[in-house]
Amino acid sequence: MLCHPAIASQNSFAVKGDFTEAPSQFLENWCWEYDALKLFAKNYKTGETLPVALFDKMKKTQLVNIGSSYVRQMSLGLIDFTYEDHYPETQKKGVLAVSKELSELSQIPFDDNNHFICSFGHLNSYGANYYGYLWSKVYAQDMFSIFKKTGVMDKATGIKYRKEILEKGATLPEIDMVKNFLGRQPNSDAFLSSLGIKNE
Predict the structure, then answer these.
(1) Could you give the CA distance from residue 91 to residue 53 in angstroms, rounded to a whole number?
(2) pLDDT(7) > 80
(3) How far, in Å, CA of 100 to CA of 174, rounded?
(4) CA neighbor of 131 nearest in space, from 1, 33, 27, 17
(5) pLDDT at 82
(6) 13: CB partners within 8 A, 6+ apart
(7) Are 143 and 178 in contact (CB under 8 A)?
(8) Is the pTM of this model over 0.70?
(9) CA 27, CA 158: separation in Å to the nearest integer?
(10) What is the enclosing helix (H) or strand (E) of 199?
């Protein structure tokens, strides 16, 4: 909707797989910002705004089970890589073999009645790019770090984001768009901080 490429095929859906989810994951950050929530998070009967005390309690839960969530994402990425790889016929792996390997890696007990891989829709649609969810998150958090400095409701920063990221679509390499928005090389500091890991 906000993309303005000269050639329609260079729209936002044509960006590289490791950037595809960056804009959507970037926007998820506003769900954890009181300045944004207070604009619409209201009691439907009374119109009372979300109490700060309740928001503070919610914020304290943000990192609960974050490790498990990322182990799952990495496991799904490994599954995707495994099935998209071009093994010789003698080395092809079945669903149960891959599930057992992931169980060992993730330390999540293996259940041979669980065939979750059979319902993993991204196997067909992402073509060895599922890892892009996590890599996109690195970009998303880095871009959001600019809003954390200027204010999450800062209009000038929002316009710059729209012009440098959303409007460009796939007309430039994604790394260049991110560098133009950040005014520097991207890094993983904000991503690590979002996981509760201090980068020192």
Answers:
(1) 56
(2) no
(3) 36
(4) 17
(5) 79
(6) 170
(7) yes
(8) yes
(9) 11
(10) none
